Amino acid sequence: xxxxxxLSLLFNIFFSAVIFxxxxxxxxxxxxxxxxxxVRDSLSGEVLIGATVKLYKDTLTxxxxxxxxxxxxxxFSIPKVQKNSYILSCGYFxxxxx
Length: 98
Hints:
Blueprint: H1 5-29, E1 32-38, E2 52-56, E3 66-69, E4 75-82, E5 87-91
């Protein structure tokens, strides 16, 4: 059986490229976290269903990086958040956004 050196070199380059690309993706995925919690009225303690929770890079950014709505239990979850400092904003109809 004859072995083609050109094909072998192409395979090695392709295999090396796949390993090189997949390692940084795998490592960056380990540095993400899930931000979750429950939104409640501060006076009554009742959960707020359908509240919007938004994550901003800083106070000057108008467009949120990620966001979520609370469910029927007042729970929200924002996955794949990298470790950093953020501004968290919560809004609900009839309440002041903070």
